[in-house]
Known about the structure:
The complex is a heterodimer. By secondary structure, chain A is mainly β. Helices cover 0% and strands 53% of the residues of chain A.
Amino acid sequence: AQTVTQSQPEMSVQEAETVTLSCTYDTSESDYYLFWYKQPPSRQMILVIRQEAYKQQNATENRFSVNFQKAAKSFSLKISDSQLGDAAMYFCAYRGRAAGNKLTFGGGTRVLVKP
Amino acid sequence: EPEVTQTPSHQVTQMGQEVILRCVPISNHLYFYWYRQILGQKVEFLVSFYNNEISEKSEIFDDQFSVERPDGSNFTLKIRSTKLEDSAMYFCASSSRTVSSYEQYFGPGTRLTVT
């Protein structure tokens, strides 16, 4: 079974600075997807960024980028130029390649942004 | 932009009562999911549904739970006899085969409180 681990329960960052969230996962599959979801206080799950395991290039979405290390099974999220609106819980998630596969989530990292 | 909707947003029920949580997935999606998040914990997979049948379920999804797609638009989760430990946020999600990553779109969640 796949597992996803986020070792940082909470991270604090100064506004306009950069913060990096860690995620490791365990799988025996060779092809899969990885995601970062943001959960603000409203508890809505918002997709931040996705990475296909077969792609070597790291995904980027505006101020959000990932460092995907397939051999190390590591998938970190970097938030650049942090904004107050970035304060939320962030969940790393894994999904196998097949169409209807479930998402397996990590335990989450709370990001606090200091003005 | 199409979105997944869920009703009600908050449901309070007494222990032992039956509840039905409702979801309207995105209209052309074929895969449907329920996830649960106990307050302060990670998001956990409950069940996936495709072609009018359950395709996968977790250990959490015991005989007290059932899912149904009663018509062409709704997807429901029923808990037959609620327990205190069923108090959680329940998220519905859907995905489409037409998107290569089969990205799951989440609804806003239903907060279930069992007293």
